[in-house]
Every structure is written in C-alpha cells, then in structure tokens.
Write a structure and sequence with these properties.
Elements: E1 7-8, E2 11-12, E3 15-16, E4 20-21, E5 30-32, E6 39-41, H1 65-81, E7 84-86, H2 98-123, E8 130-133, E9 139-141, E10 165-167, H3 170-173, E11 178-180, E12 201-203, H4 204-212, E13 229-231, E14 234-236, E15 272-273, E16 276-277, H5 283-305, E17 310-313, E18 319-321, E19 345-347, H6 350-353, E20 358-360, E21 382-384, H7 385-392, H8 402-405
Antiparallel strand pairs: 1-4, 2-3, 5-6, 7-13, 8-9, 8-10, 11-12, 13-14, 15-16, 17-18, 17-19, 20-21
Helix pairs in contact: 2-4, 2-5, 5-7
C-alpha cells in the first residue's frame, strides 16, 4: 500500500473522484523511509563539471539584476538626500578593513608557496609530466596525452578534433589572469585607454592582496589614515601631505616610480620549511602542502572579494580588481563593436581570478601508457589541474572534488564499451 502522501483522494459533492497523484512528483533520487511518510533526499552521486557558456552569450550575473537596480536607486536617493557626506564603511572610504589585513597576508604567502610547490612538482627530480595542446588551451596530466576529441583550435576539423600535444609548464597548470595596478583605488579607480602602456599589469590575486593591506615594493599604493568624502557622487580627499609637498599631479601614472624587479635567485637555493629544508621534504609531503596552499588561497580570496570589489568582462576572461573596471578598449569578444572595444563589466567570482582549468582524471597512474579513449569519456572524471597534479604526486583527494573525479567508477575496456548499459 503506498503512503498516504503519495496518492490522494479528492472528495467532491456527489461522490469521490478516482485517485489522482499529488502535486509534488517523486524524483529519481528520492527514497521513502521504511515505516514513515517523510521522503529522504539523497544527494546526486556525481557532480559534472559545469559546461562553459557559448562565446556569444554573456556570463550569468552573480547578483540578480533586480537587486543591482534596487541598490542603484538606494544609492542615488541617499546621494540626493545628503549631497556631501563622509563615507563611513571601509574600503569604500579609502581605509583598510582591519580584520582582512591578516587574511590578505595569508593569501599572499599561500600563493608564493603554491608557485614554489608547483615548480618542484613539474620541474623537480620526480617531475610529473604535463602536456598541453598546441592549438588550444587543453591540458593533460600524464605521460601520454589523451585521445578525447575536444580540440577547438585552428584546423581542428581536419584532425577530427584531436589534440596535438607538447610539453607543458607551470603556467599551463595554473595561470593567473592579469589586471591593471591601481595606485589610488578610491581617488582614481579607473585606468583610461591612453594609460594602457603606462600603468603596469600584475596578477589579479596579487593586486587583490595589495589593495587589502599587503605592501609590495614593486607596486606602491596609497594608504590613507582618514576617510574620504562624497560630494555629489564624486570623491573628495582632504588628507594632504603638506610636509612632503605632494599635489594632485603625483597621483598621475606618469609620476609613479616603480623599482626594478628583484634579481632572481638560483634554483639551487634551499628554502627552510619547519626544521627541514625543501630538499629533505618528500614528494608526497610537498604535494600535500601545495594542495593545501591552493585551497587556502581560494578560500582567502573568496573572503577578500566579499569586501573588495572585483569585476570581470561578461564576454571575455579579463578581470579588474577595484570598485570599477578600466576603460581600455581591448575586448575582442562577442559584440565588442557595439561597445567600441570596451569591456562589459560585471561582478566577478573567485573562479575568475583563480581559474580551475579542469583536466581529465586518470584513475590508474600505473597504466598511464595507454591514452584515454574517446569512446569511454563518460566514464572518466575531471578535476582542476592543480588537484590532479598533486593527487598524482601522492596528496589525498579533497572531499569537495571526489564526486567529479568519479573514484569508484571502473571504465570498461575499449572492446567492451558498447556492451555496458
């Protein structure tokens, strides 16, 4: 006898109608408890990698458009009620957020440890081979590149969408998008088109740390001690350095002085980690620390982005850290003619400044000499390139990536794939 909540009898005047189903249908992953009437929701066993959007479509908004319009109306109304007001909340008033300064330093240190660990795993004595396609951005971790037909580069139709593999580097495993450096993120939040060769560019994650409180000698930035004022929507700064004789001319990019980059140290130098040097650390320990640094950097960057604005183009992967996007006409994505080459800025996510770069997961590294078959691609899992590289080196699989890596799936042989349901 089915439970009472599954089938319902509707009584009307003159009799009862036949049994009809309830409004709420049963889903494939809903299971009824024995002896109870409440359904138990089971999680979907596998989480597929989100498919990239079409090139001519805009990225989905992080915040709904109705919420953005309501915020804009509230800000305009507040500006009309108080044309001259002092901004109270950081970082909009030019001050740092006190409890996020330490977070920014942790993210900066995690980034340095991550780059050092990836260099050791890719170029060290027990280096893990990395392959990259010659015509597209596809990356594969393993001795032999896969045979999955996903290439979309030039003349891919003549190759049946097969990749042409070549040796890869650390930049192929993890590539940070670059953005313009802002000397004064409140007084001059935008870079115009004529300054595109004057203002330096740096990784967006590093610029986020600098704006949140990290001091880097190569990229100076202005630190305020008093909040700024907003007069009819324009920022007015009454904090003048009369003792140094500074003026508004010093805020122009031409007046900034950027010291030369520090000399590169040799790769033979050893770094001390705890009580042991980097040479004494095993590959398994190095991979675990590298993976943990990557997770810490992403979680810390997500915390910083809740306060410090980061925008991205809705049609291309360009990003800009700051309250507003730059005005450099460098967008070549869809509909760029309508915008005169300018970007269509919108709110960014942590995946925009720290791309995941998913790769196919190899279940059995010992049998890596056989490439992945295109017929069996639905049995293979995927993982971010950094996670796959560290797992191949001996690091434990993170909990949040076990579902998409499909660790409990055994792919059939090439001559058996048509026999599997």
């Amino acid at each position: 006898m089915p439970p009472a909540g599954l089938l319902a009898r509707r009584v009307v005047r003159g009799g009862a109608e036949p049994l009809v189903r309830s409004v709420r249908p049963l889903r494939a992953w809903t299971r009824w408890l024995h002896g109870g009437r409440e359904p138990q929701e089971e999680e979907i066993p596998y989480a597929d990698v989100p498919r990239p959007g079409r090139k001519w479509e805009r990225k989905p908004y992080v915040t709904p458009m109705k919420v953005l319009i309501r915020r804009a109306k509230e800000e305009r109304q507040a500006r009309q009620e108080a044309p001259c007001r002092m901004l109270e909340h950081p970082p909009a008033n030019g001050l740092l957020v006190p409890h996020l300064v330490e977070v920014a330093h942790r993210v900066h240190r995690a980034r340095e440890r991550l780059l050092s660990g990836l260099a050791s795993l890719v170029k060290g004595d027990a280096a893990i081979p990395v392959k990259r396609c010659r015509f597209c951005s596809e990356v594969h971790i393993g001795d032999v590149g896969h045979e999955i037909r996903t290439c979309e580069g030039p003349n891919s139709a003549s190759r049946n969408s097969l990749h042409v593999w070549r040796p890869g580097t650390v930049r192929d495993v993890l590539g940070f998008p670059y953005c313009y450096h802002l000397f004064d993120r409140v007084g001059k939040p935008r870079v115009v088109h004529k300054e595109k060769y004057v203002v330096p560019r740096l990784p967006a994650i590093l610029e986020l740390c600098i704006q949140a409180g990290v001091d880097v000698e190569r990229y100076p930035t202005k630190r305020r001690t008093r909040p700024v004022y907003s007069i009819d929507g324009r920022i007015a700064d009454f904090e003048l350095d009369d003792e140094d004789g500074s003026s508004e001319a010093e805020t122009s990019p031409e007046a900034w002085s950027y010291p030369s980059p520090p000399p590169q140290t040799s790769s033979a130098s050893t770094a001390y980690v705890g009580n042991r040097t980097e040479e004494e650390i095993t590959v398994r320990e190095m991979s675990s620390r590298t993976l943990q640094s990557w997770l810490d950097m992403r979680s810390g960057a997500a915390r910083l982005m809740r306060k410090y604005g980061v925008v991205t183009c809705g049609y291309c992967p360009d990003v800009q850290v700051g309250p507003k996007g730059h005005k450099v006409r460098m967008c070549k994505a869809s509909k760029h003619q309508q915008r005169d080459g300018q970007h269509a800025w919108q709110e960014a996510t942590v995946d925009d400044i720290v791309p995941l770069n998913h790769v196919w997961h190899v279940r059995d590294p010992a049998g890596d000499s056989v490439p992945l078959a295109n017929e069996l691609k639905r049995y293979y899992g995927k993982a971010p390139a950094v996670v796959e590289l560290c797992v191949r080196a001996g690091a434990p699989v993170p909990v949040q990536y076990r579902s998409m890596m499909r660790l409990d799936v055994v792919p059939p042989a090439r001559d058996e794939y048509d026999l599997v349901a």
